[in-house]
Design goal:
Layout: E1 3-6, H1 12-21, E2 25-29, H2 40-46, E3 53-59, H3 63-73, E4 77-81, H4 85-94, E5 98-103, E6 117-120, E7 148-149, H5 158-165, E8 169-172, E9 177-179, E10 182-183, H6 185-197
Parallel strand pairs: 1-2, 1-8, 2-3, 3-4, 4-5, 5-6, 6-7, 7-8
Antiparallel strand pairs: 9-10
Helix pairs in contact: 1-6, 3-4
Amino acid sequence: MTWVKVCGLTRPEDVAVAVDAGADAVGFVSHPGSPRYVSLPAIAELIVDVPVLTVVLTVELGPAAALTAVEVTGALGIQPYGARAGDVAEAALAAGIAVLYPVSRPAEISAAPLGATPLCDTPDEIMYGGTGRVFDWSTLRGIEQDFILAGGLGPDNVTDAIRRVRPWGVDASSRLEAAAGVKDPGKVAAFVQEAKSA
């Protein structure tokens, strides 16, 4: 069964919808440039008693600041973007923190730090994920290493993506929204259901 993450959550009711739908992980964006930005203290409030993997997305932080973000929020995982993502991943893994390691090309999957789970997403230098643009699935056929597929996934195309690419997991954000930062409960539930039954 495919592992599922719902990212870009900003409200407690959206977290509850994702968890109730059966998501294996929920993600929160700590980058102020994102329309889904949530402050670290607010993320900490959102993840209290959440029974699935909680992931904080960071951008352009060094290892010390990134680990502080994890500590402040209480998240169990991190998704680091930026020039020092590799250093952040190594430090997080050494501290026992789960790492979803963003990559934008199939060749980068095997170069992800040992112990991190590669997350293939459509590249964007401004948004760092959540663009709604579909990743080029054809480039991922035949990849044997576990990876998470992201980039433009929603209830309407996740089944096709899983059947074509066979990822270990899937991750969605913007295509599950009613408005920026506000999830549509029906889309979230349908996405998780479609992914789990593909």
